[in-house]
Structure formats: C-alpha cells, structure tokens
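Need tokens for this chain, all 344 residues.
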Amino acid sequence: MTATQNDGLGRILEGSAQALAQAKAEFEATPIDQDWSADLPAPRLARARTIARPVEVSAPGTFSKNSIRTLRLEPTDLSGWWLERCDIPDSRPIKVSIRNVWTTGEIVSNIVLRSGSVHNYVRLVEHIIALKAGMDVDNLLIKLDSGDPPLFNAGSKELVEAINSAGRKELATPVRYFTVKERVSLLTPHNGLLQIDPAEEGSLRLDIDCVRNFPNAIGQQRIRFVNNERSFLHGSTARTNTTARQKLLVTTFGKLFPESRNLGYNSKNVLIAGKRRYSNEPTHMHEGKSLEAAWHRAVLDLLAALALIDEGRFVGKIIDYKGGHYPDVEMVKLLYAYDLLKEV
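Here are the structure tokens for all 344 residues:
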C-alpha cells in the first residue's frame, strides 16, 4: 500500500493536501489557552507494571442508567489490557487492541470492542482504556458484569483513584515504546487534522496539541501539554460534552433507538453546551474560560485511541484539530496497514 507524500503534512493517509493544508492553517491560527508543554514527561520505565491488588469501582450504567455496573480490576501477567465479560459463560477476554474495534458508534459516538461472538462486546470503552496510555499500568484484567460500563460523574476520576489505591507491581517483562516512522496526516470528517510526528531521538515524550472548535458555547479551545501525571489527572476529570439539542433529541426521539434508549447522560456527568452558554456548570476553568471540552478530548478520547496500539506505549507529537473517535481509530488502523510504527 502507498500514501501521498507532502513536505508540510508528511505522508497523507486520508484526505486531500489542499483540505489538510487549510485545516493546519486554521489550527495554527488558534491561540493557545493553556500550555503545559514545558513540564517534565512521564518517567522512563524499564519494566512493565500491573496493579498490586484487585480493586472494584461501581456507578450507574452508561446505557442502562437504572442499573449499577461494576468494574473489577485485577493484576495479570497477560501482556496489555483485557476486558472480560463475566456474565457470558466461557467467553474469552477481549484484548484492548485495534484488531478488536467493532464500531465507533453512529447515534452515540463511542469505541466498542468485541472478540469472537457478537455478544462478547463492551461499549464506550474509551474512558476506561485511556488510562492504559495515560497511567503507569501496562498489564490489567478488567472484569465486567455486562457490556455496558459504568458512567462516572467526573470523567474517569473514580477509576483513576481506584487504580492508584491498588498500588503497583513490577513485572519481569520490559516496557516497549513505539512511535511513527515519519510524519503522517489524516483529514477528519469535519475538515480537521490529525497529525503525528515521530518522537525525537532519545526521547520518550508524548506531546499533544489539541484544538476544539464548535459554533456554540464551547467555541475555540486550545491546550498544549506533555503526557505526565499532572496533565493526565487533570484531563481525566473532564466530562464528555454534548449540545443542548443533542441532549434533547436523546431524551425524546432517542428513546426509539436501542443505542440511546437508556443512555445515562445527565446534567452531572456530561457538559451541555447551548448556542451561547452552557446549560450546566463547566469545569477546568483557566483565566475565566472553561477548557473542559479540550481536556476531555485530548486525554479521555485521543489517548484511548493510542491505547489500541497494544504492543506497548506510544511516544511522539500529536496535533489534533476537530478530531473524533472515528478518525482516531482510522489513524491507528492506517498506521498498521502502512507499516508506519517502529519500536523506539
């Protein structure tokens, strides 16, 4: 397979050079609201880690708001992160991997992983698996009582706290780091840009420059940071966002569709953006402006896609402008299809 080459955009994996150049110009013209790129990166680790002891966390279901759903996190020697449906007899664990992505949703945008039987799936996994790319846990077994994970009120805060309370156990296997062989670019469905650069020689940093651009209260938001404990903990508490119109549709016509009929979104666990103002109280304020949408996108959505690179941790530099789950997953698929990943 081949892809178009462009000096400023690198290897173009999807979209035209003209549309990508326009998206990059819009991205570069967006002022930076918050810049944590001067921070130290996450520590360089030699050995893989798992948690030291099992721990559980529960909340109302994402797609079954009247039922409490529980995640049981257990240490494992299995390489990578695994999801096990305990409610399905004899089902095999689902590895967190690009190879097991079933869909990124239509009515409700979310990453769904599946392995084997069509019944052996887990929906809206992004807010769980983002922790694989953002925390120091390389191997983990997550047991679920259904394919519907819990929905927390503050992003993935409770899940992060549960993992931290479990402690760590170092394993004999080494940590593996991967980056791209060259700059790659992809056009998103909303004429945005997803661009990845290789890590610098001798560096194991993951730098992210993320822009949200909406014609509503969210408006333009740009954050730049290096992935480390401070930035991940900050972003992990940011809620997903929706428009007031989408929220109304889900609670009315959405009741006709299985994908959204029992969706547990409410004014506490999602940020609701109206045309000129938020319908509920935004968080992640910086100099009088909420950057909650940008932090959620960069940490709990974008890092989730990097977690699908199942062989190890990803390092490099990422530009994200008007991104979403579909282009995230498409990018990772194309990195494998074009053999563009290399071990550092």
